[in-house]
Design goal:
By secondary structure, this protein is of the alpha+beta class. The protein has four domains: about 130 residues, Rossmann fold, CATH 3.40.50; about 80 residues, no CATH class; about 80 residues; about 110 residues, no CATH class. It has 20 helices and 13 strands. The strands form five sheets. The chain has a four-stranded mixed β-sheet with strand order 3-4-6-5. A three-stranded antiparallel β-sheet has the order 10-7-11. The longest helix has 25 residues. It is globular. The two termini are about 30 Å apart.
């Protein structure tokens, strides 16, 4: 509810941000958070897409009311068809020519088995005397497990043969029962609708929004797949069919697509010139010389686990640890082709080992993020359910932080060291009423065991997390 946009506004003080939400409670919370964090380059607007699309009202940004970027994360699959049309029409109206639109949504075929769960859940929620949303979730999951599971000596049920992933997905839902907000957001909306990719791309095109790439970077390289699958996808020239084949090949369940209002075709020369200028920085904390990397680097992607040459990764990290470098500089230093380096950097960006260097924008971002993070730590310690702080270096803005991390970092910033630091963290957690839990999530009742866990966490934070936070520009 506004946290992500607030963190982006802190990381990009040169920008102007507007958040839209139908729920007044979400808007009120977001406005409160922005005020608490003293972020001035952001506003939140209560409204629904249908009404906004039908009116000539201009949203409060810039001299002409147009935007460089529009973002719709986790919206398209959870709104009714007329509202989808309105959202995309509004996007077209708000974007400048050449502006970019990000849209994420649930996709087929990966969500086919969970349509079974959703269909039964809808009926369970309509049952007279139904035991609330979570009760309906639990009843639905238990029933589907009975229909899918069989004794070890029995043949698989017809349902589990038709949907072999159903048991795994239902078990995962059962494990998420302590996350009611997620479950309600994912399965509670009546117009819940996954899509085949061609449906969305045609819908966007009807509103002058052309698909250009996936924001999940490895998905842009079908060659990462097994060769026999890559051949089927890469030989297809029709863009809609090619993207559909890709999703079918990997059983895609979620897409993060980028569209442009008015794409500008590039020549190969212009394309390579722009790539050569892109700057990268190192975000990988390492206690050893990265050039001595010997173990293969495996990156988990939607297309499978991708293994990268360890010496190539080591050479790149070693170069970037000295100073940010452009892709052209990397090409000269490593002697690899631009295409190979594009794949390599995409994988390491996906893994979070490197970032897009922001150059001269970093000093002003540093100043904005520093004050925001100080207040964020105070809010977390006061018991507010916030779990991110802002990074002036990482382009995505937010970096995850736990309550225990927040108390530890706050103590370090106050100059507390050694055993006293762990004691102060322990007292702070206790005064805030924060329960200590082990790595499995179970409550720890024994004070000695809880304090021992805090000592371990503080030691690990000092030896590892602090290095990472320095690379992200969060601490000096």
């Amino acid at each position: 509810m506004g946290l992500g946009l607030c963190l982006l506004a802190a990381a990009y003080p040169e920008g102007q941000f507007v958040g839209i939400d139908f729920h007044p409670g979400h808007i009120a919370y977001s406005q409160w958070l922005a005020q608490e964090l003293q972020i001035s380059n952001i506003v939140f607007h209560e409204g629904d897409f249908s009404a906004l699309a039908a009116s000539e009202q201009q949203l409060p940004v810039g001299p002409d009311g147009h935007f460089d970027y529009v973002v719709a994360h986790g919206i398209l699959s959870w709104i009714a068809e007329p509202v989808r049309q309105a959202m995309l029409g509004l996007t077209n109206r708000l974007l400048k020519p050449g502006g970019a639109f990000y849209c994420s949504y649930n996709t087929f075929p990966g969500w086919l088995d969970r349509t079974v769960f959703k269909a039964l859940l809808t009926l369970e929620r309509e049952r007279p005397g139904a035991d609330g949303f979570l009760g309906s979730i639990q009843r639905t999951a238990a029933t589907l497990m009975r229909l899918s599971e069989t004794p070890s000596d029995a043949n698989p049920t017809r349902l589990s043969r038709a949907f072999p992933g159903l048991i795994v997905n239902v078990r995962h839902i059962q494990e998420q029962i302590d996350q009611p907000s997620y479950l309600c957001g994912e399965y509670g909306a009546e117009p819940w609708q996954p899509f085949y990719v061609a449906e969305v791309h045609r819908l966007a095109a009807a509103h002058k929004l052309d698909y250009v790439a996936s924001a999940t970077l490895p998905d842009n390289f079908p060659s990462f797949m097994a060769s026999h699958l890559a051949a089927v996808v890469e030989e297809e020239r029709d863009p809609l069919i090619q993207q559909t084949l890709l999703d079918m090949a990997i059983n895609q369940c979620f897409r993060r697509d980028l569209f442009v209002k008015g794409a500008i075709p590039l020549t190969r020369t212009a394309y390579e010139a722009l790539l050569a200028q892109q700057m990268f920085c190192c975000l990988r904390a390492s206690d050893t010389n990265p050039s001595a990397q010997t173990e293969p680097v495996a990156v988990t992607t939607n297309l499978g686990s991708i293994s990268i040459e360890p010496d190539l990764v080591g050479q790149l990290l070693s170069l970037l640890q000295q100073a940010p470098a452009s892709l052209g500089d990397i090409h000269q230093a490593l002697g690899r082709s631009v295409d190979d380096l594009l794949k390599l950097t995409s994988l390491l960006l996906h893994e979070g080992w490197i970032g897009l260097d922001r150059g001269p924008a970093i000093p002003s971002a540093n100043s904005a993020c520093r004050s925001v993070n100080q207040r964020m730590l105070e809010l977390i310690q006061a018991g507010n359910n916030l779990n991110f702080i802002a990074s002036p270096v990482a382009g995505h803005g937010g970096v995850g932080i736990s309550v225990l991390d927040a108390f530890t970092l706050a103590g370090i910033q106050q100059g507390i060291e050694g055993d006293v630091l762990a004691s102060c963290v322990w007292m702070g957690m206790a005064s805030a009423g924060v329960d200590m839990r082990n790595r499995e999530g179970s409550l720890i009742d024994d004070p000695d065991q809880a304090f021992s866990l805090i000592q371990e966490h503080v030691a690990l934070f000092l030896s590892s997390s602090m290095t990472k936070l320095r690379l992200l520009g969060i601490v000096g």
